[in-house]
Amino acid sequence: MSIAPLPVPALTVQHLTVAYTRAPVLWDVSWTAPPNGLVAIVGPNGAGKSTLLKAVLDLVPRLSREVRLFGLTLDQARRRIGYLPQRASVDWDFPATALQVVAQGRYPRVGWLRPLPRAERERARAALAEVGMAEFADRQIGQLSGGQQQRVFLARALALEADLYLMDEPFAGVDAATERAIVEVLRRLAAEGRTVIAVHHDLATAPQYFDHVLLLNVRAIAAGPMASTFTAENLARTYGGRLSLLERAVAAAQAGTRPAPPP
Amino acid sequence: MTVADALLFSAGYNAAVVALGCAAFGLAAGALGCFVLLRGRALIADAAAHATLPGVAGAFILAALIGWDVRALPLLLAGAGATAALGVVLVNALAGGGRIRDDAAMALVLSIGFGIGVVLMSVVQSLPVGGQAGLKGFILGQAAGMSAADAQLVGALAVLALLLVGVLFRPLAALCFDRGFAAAVGLPVRALDLALLGLMLAVTVAGLRAVGLILVVALMVIPAATARLLTERLEAMVPIAGGVGAVSAWVGAALSATLPDLPTGATITLVACALFLAALLFAPRRGALAFAARQAMLSLTVARDHALRAAFEAAERAPGATHRWVELGRGAGWSRWQRAVLPRWLAAAGWVRAEGERIALTDAGLALARDLTRRHRLWEHYMQAAGGLGPWAAHRAADEVEHTLPPEVAREAEAWLRRNDPARLPAEGALPAPGEAPTAPR
Fold first, then answer.
1. pLDDT tens string B65-102
2. Do the chains contact at B185 and A83, CB–CB below 8 Å?
3. How far apart are CA B34 and CA B227, in angstroms?
4. What's the pLDDT band for B200 if we cut at 50, 70, 90?
């Protein structure tokens, strides 16, 4: 008879502090992500949400840190981690096709110095098809719409076949059809037992799309299951004074609709 | 020696080797230039090139002091590489702390490096050894004075750089496109950035003798920019840029070898510029002519569609209606050149036939006009139903989108109507009513 092992948290950060020049962007953040499911990082602009993802991936210098991914260091866990950067962080005029961008998600497995084997190329193609972009495989990425570009980025992340995905604003500036497609993919990833940690801006949709939440504003304000954590009180602590607007967002979210526009 | 001799390697062994060495440098500079440009490193390459001058002059002075051969190219290039590398380090140190902006740091290093170099050059002039005249070639380039051994050294450097670019092609591409992702999946991005800088320095140093430090950056930037106009794929862009660089260097070196007063660097750069201009005008997709042709075609198509739709709606009211070109063109807002072109196009395509003084739609013209009218009315309905526009605004909005949005978007709009407001869609095969048709409020 075997005993089921305790689930290892996908991500643990302890006493994480990041400062770019003067004031810290993240201050003493300690947080343990659940072992699987969809997790939103929510907070105001400049709260350090993107920086948290980058610090976990060692893309920005950390002042102090203790980051564990599945109980391992980043280098040990590298193959199990997928990253989806902000769409605006790259130059889309780059001379590459959608398929070539997605193929970047396969090279880490086969090595970067030789051409991608046919089978791997097909897997990249399958990842594109999964986000509904199969027919755009050979199009130069600058000739895609914003939503299509976001799907290409998502397909590249999927091609990594990771167990933990760190996504920086996957829903930023996309059309409704793309938003639905992304949600579908995220749900499938969660159903397969994977973890997705995504920076999310839209308070109205956060409770619909995600199971867990980390409320962040330089410090970790609150974290836990969406239902018990995404409260007006916690949001007020995260966002500061703008209470009335937030209460409306929470009420609307609980009612399952989008908030009414301000009068 | 004529230009043809120089181009065809029949101007003697030395000239042929020099031409080949220059071409090899052009090939490497063009290929590497793609990555330099895509990584946004063109300015730092220019700063590094200018920072070679103190190295060249310093190496000369050092050699004169300890009694070595002051004209030994390897020594001078080693000095150039050392101060250029120092310049790059200085740019990173100045900009890295956030004290000065990147562009200011590069301009600073460029001018300081060049300034120190010019001062050292005046020291060089005062030294009691020969060979000072050769140093001038490092500023503006002078391929004519190169020995076969010099050219072989340059060629070897270039080939080495080219091989490394080939090996590192995919990692460098990933680095240039998305450094954050590359780092996240475990590529050694710092080492790759260093490798790119190192290759850039090697190519810069290799080009000094032939092209000169002021213009060496041109052979990294111009061929890459030319190639980008011609292709949308990096794996095509790199060989094209290499080819443009090689041809420019070869032709430019041959021209300046024939006319010894012509500085090689300027000649090579001007040849590259000519190729760039040709690409700018004639590139199949990104070229200026192709762009103008696409614009003209679009405006012609829009004018045609308007006229055909007007003719179709007239035929709806009175089957077999005939028209006069003048009225049709005025109604559709044809400009003067469209009035000259469109009647010929419509007749040649078989969409209209003459009926005495007047014209009528043929069956093919009627079918096309019907499709166009259907598309326009679908968009009108979509604008009214989904966008809540009034009939007139919907008509204008439909006019703006129907010619440019791809057919798959039109199908999406139709599918939306089918789901949300099917009353606006008629039975299969029939035309929707004009957009003014009233429907139930949403």
1. 888 887 888 999 999 999 999 999 999 888 877 778 88
2. yes
3. 8
4. very high
User: Which stretches in chain A have pLDDT values below 50?
Assistant: 1, 243, 258-263
Phi, psi for residue B285 in degrees, rounded to 5 = -115, -40
Residue of A nearest to B179 (CA): A90
Query: What was the pLDDT predicted at B253?
Result: 86
Q: How confident is the model at residue B441 (pLDDT cuts 50, 70, 90)?
A: very low
Q: Which residue has the higher pLDDT, B274 or B354?
A: B274
Task: Give how far A79 is from chain B: nearest CA, Å.
Answer: 7
Point out which residues pair with A166 in neighbouring strands.
A83, A197
- Range B290-361: architecture per CATH: Orthogonal Bundle (1.10)
The predicted pLDDT at position B417 comes to: 85
Q: What is the pLDDT of residues B371-388, one digit of tens each?
A: 888 888 888 888 888 888
pLDDT higher than 70, residue B11: no
- Nearest residue on chain B to A98, alpha-carbon basis: B233
Cross-chain Cβ contact B234/A95 below 8 Å:
yes
Whether residue A58 and residue B183 make contact (CB cut-off 8 A), yes or no, is: yes
Q: Cα separations (Å) of B126 from B61, B64, B116, B118? A: 10, 11, 16, 13
Q: Tokens representing B431?
A: 């035309």
What is the domain partition of chain B in residue ranges?
3-283, 290-361, 367-424
Q: Which long-range contacts (CB under 8 A, 24 or more apart) does A25-30 make?
A: A25/A51, A25/A218, A26/A51, A26/A52, A26/A55, A26/A218, A26/A219, A27/A218, A27/A219, A28/A219, A29/A216, A29/A219, A29/A220, A30/A220
Task: Determine which helix (DSSP H) or strand (DSSP E) holds A222, and give its type and residue range.
Answer: strand A219-225
Q: Evaluate if residue B16 carries a pLDDT over 90.
A: no
Contacts of B118 (CB under 8 A, 6+ apart): B53
Parallel, antiparallel, or unpaired for β B358-361 and B352-355? antiparallel
Q: Which of A113-122, B14-23, B117-126 has the lowest mean pLDDT?
A: B14-23
Whether residue B407 lies within 8 A of chain A, CB to CB, comes out as: no
Identity of residue B27? L
Whether the per-residue pLDDT at B206 is higher than 80: the answer is yes
**Cβ separation B232–A90 shorter than 8 A:** no
| Contact (CB<8Å) B185/A104 | yes
Which residues 6+ apart lie within 8 Å of B275 measured at CB? B222, B223, B226, B244, B247, B248
Q: Name the residue facing A78 among B171, B186, B228 (closest C-beta).
A: B186
Query: How does DSSP classify residue B145?
Result: G
Q: In terms of CA atoms, which chain B residue is nearest residue A79?
A: B185
For residue B391, pLDDT beyond 90: no
Q: ipTM score of the complex?
A: 0.89
Query: With contact defined as beta carbons under 8 Å apart, do B185 and A77 qualify?
Result: no
A and B: number of Cβ contacts within 8 A: 72
**CATH topology match: B3-283 vs B290-361:** no
User: Comparing C-alpha atoms, which of B288, B188, B228, B191 is closest to residue B38?
Assistant: B228
Query: Quick one: tokens of A225?
Result: 């299951």
A95 vs B184: CB contact, 8 Å cut-off? no
Contact B191, B62 (CB under 8 A): no
| Nearest chain B CA: its distance from A57 CA (Å) | 6
Q: Residues 298..327 of B with a Cβ closer than 8 Å to A: which? A: none
Helix B264-282 crosses helix B218-230 at what angle (to 10 degrees)? 20
Domain B3-283 falls under CATH 3.30.420.40: no
Gap between the Cα atoms of B111 and B118, Å rounded? 10
CA-nearest residue to A20 within chain B is B98
Q: Which residues of B touch A107 (CB under 8 A)?
A: 170, 174, 185
